[in-house]
Amino acid sequence: MAQTTLTRSQLLSLNQQQFAWIHCDHGTIWLTDDGHDVVLQAGEAWQVQGWQAVLVEALSDSQLRISASQPSTSRWQPLLQWAQQWLHGGSQPRHA
């Protein structure tokens, strides 16, 4: 799907998008998906969970797009990498 522009308070209903990714490229959007209420800011993405329609509202003038692929970067990626290293004792193997 091409990029969609929404003005503040504008609503969008998305159907048949299971497992698709909603990317917020600009602004702030709120969405509800299968009981999940999510706020996305520019650079964040959400993977659609349910089969029901997803309702999106622009909390500010926003741009979003829908894709079948996961976002290439995540603002949580550095924290996740740190947590994985911490859980596995760092990046260096341990010697007895």
Short description:
The protein has one helix at residues 77-87; strands spanning 4-6, 11-14, 21-26, 28-33, 36-41, 45-47, 54-58, 62-67. It is mainly beta.
- Could you report the average pLDDT, rounded to the nearest whole number? 82
> How helical, in percent, are the residues?
10-25%
Secondary structure class reads mainly beta
What's the β-strand tally? 8
What this model shows, in words?
The protein has one helix at residues 77-87; strands at 4-6, 11-14, 21-26, 28-33, 36-41, 45-47, 54-58, 62-67. A hairpin with a 2-residue loop joins β4 (28-33) and β5. It contains one helix and eight strands. The model is unreliable at 91-96 (pLDDT under 50). The longest helix has 11 residues, at 77-87. A four-stranded antiparallel β-sheet has the order 1-8-3-6, with no helix packed on it. Strands 2-7-4-5 form a four-stranded antiparallel β-sheet, with no helix packed on it. With 96 residues, it is mainly beta.
Comma- or semicolon-separated keywords:
96 residues, mainly beta, 11% helix, 41% strand, globular, disordered C terminus
